[in-house]
Amino acid sequence: MSDKLYLYPVWIRIWHIFNAVFFLVLLLSGISMQYASPDFMLMPFDVAVTSHNVAGIGISIAYFIYLIGFVFTSNKKHYKIECKGLIGQLITQMRYYLFGVFKGEESPYPSTEESKFNPLQKVTYVGVLFVLFPVLIFTGLPLMFPEVIIDDFFGIGGTLLTALVHASAGFFASLFLVIHLYFATMGASFSSNFKSIINGYHESH
Amino acid sequence: MVNKYKLVILCLFACLFLGGSQSIAQDVADNGKCLKCHGQVFYEYDNEWTGQVDRKPLNPFHHIDSVKMHQSVHKMFACIDCHSMDYETFPHDGELRLEAKYTCMDCHGGDDTYAKYNFEGIEEAFMESVHFQASEERFNCWSCHDAHGYELALRNDKSIVEVVELSNNMCLSCHDNKFKYGLISDDQPKQINEIHAWLPNQDSHFKKVRCVDCHTNVQKDVLVSHNILPKEKALKNCVQCHSANSVLMESLYAYRAKESRESSGFLNAVILNEGYMIGANRNQTLNNISIGIFSLMILGLLVHLILRFILIKKK
């Protein structure tokens, strides 16, 4: 019998759904544009450009709303990282994922109402939400209006540099998505974490 | 002694500048007599009937931009090399307007000096173009090319943005000017922005791509294809440019491609000299690294997943 904790309030769940949909559209349309070819297309180029632009604006608005929620609710407590002992905690969590999980060990940092993420999750989510997201937004928006980008940045074309940073950040975001989806299967059951983000209740092991 | 040196240096400078001005004078024909009126917006003349000096507006179609003319490929020609000598008298004889004009082929056709430009290929393509087919004799070289201001753009060191601007201005001189358009057609020119409303980032496309890059098929034997296609046949499939095999590499960038940054590792690197094009510019090394990292991650997660299943089954 597992315990249930209410960890995902309605606004987080709504944001997460929108974020997931926009993220998927951006990923598919981004890959489609980057590897565009007359012989093979995930989607027509003009559809890819339009959907990438629309989803880009959508995810930026959703991110802005998330930031407001982050500042004005207690949700921010879950992202507080204590530097003291962090390395040790990260090693403990990684050891659990690499070995402990196969031995049937208990999670070293189980979710609680005060801290729903383990140290590795905290570092990853802070990195994604407060480094990767801003990089993607602040390089993506100018690419929608390339005329605002400077022509030359220390000998490198401004648009090329912006596009390279954007595509690289997008690549890391795609890595995050796959890992995020896989680790979501490591809940109390294979599907419990997926249910949690729908109904708000986290099922403990 | 010092004064002698000064004198020698002064003589050297004088020779340098005089020599320079002579060579400029040799390159550019003196057309001052014609440009006195045709280089101006208003012209003046002594009216022998009234004894006054009249000031009249010059017909804009007869105006010559003297600065452009002095930079053009035809700058060494006197006006009367191409136009009747009778133009030297003023007022000009009214019948002179019936004078037949030279076309490009009258001078450049069948001449080995200009073989690299392949004027014959240009003429052949032009005859097939929608312009010639629709209006035949009324449409000629001068409808697009300004004989008095034509300059080589791609073959010179002009930036691609300048090349695009010069080329597109040729098209817009009619398609955005109802008076010049009216010389060929009874219709009104359509609004360029409206008929290209489907094109994303219109501004960027108009600044970075020539009209002819979409409105002609690549003609390998000439630098710029002259077979303007009917609008239905214009390039509309984005990936024909936005892909590894971008057609722009055979048209707009064909001439510069030879001098491309081959060592940079980017596909179609020559485009990067002037900008960046989604789909056409990819870095092969970064591509390989990203595919490698992604594959390793998927492999790692698959192994993890399989091990989890095996252990769950054992329990």
Query: Could you tell me the number of beta strands of chain B?
Result: 2
Rg of chain A over CA atoms, rounded to whole Å, is: 19 Å
Helix content of chain A: 55-70%
The sequence of SSEs of chain A as H and E is: EHHHHEEHHE
Structure notes:
The complex is a heterodimer of chains A (205) and B (315). Chain A has 205 residues and is mainly α. Chain A has helices spanning 10-34, 45-72, 86-103, 119-144, 158-183, 192-199; strands at 4-6, 152-153, 156-157, 201-203. A two-stranded antiparallel ribbon of chain A has the order 1-4. A two-stranded antiparallel ribbon of chain A has the order 2-3. In chain A, a hairpin with a 2-residue loop joins strand 2 (152-153) and strand 3. Chain B is mostly helical. Chain B is elongated, with a radius of gyration of 29 Å. The N and C termini of chain B lie far apart (109 Å). The interface between A and B is medium-sized, with 32 and 36 residues.
What would a concise description of this structure say?
The complex is a heterodimer of chains A (205) and B (315). By secondary structure, chain A is mainly alpha-helical.
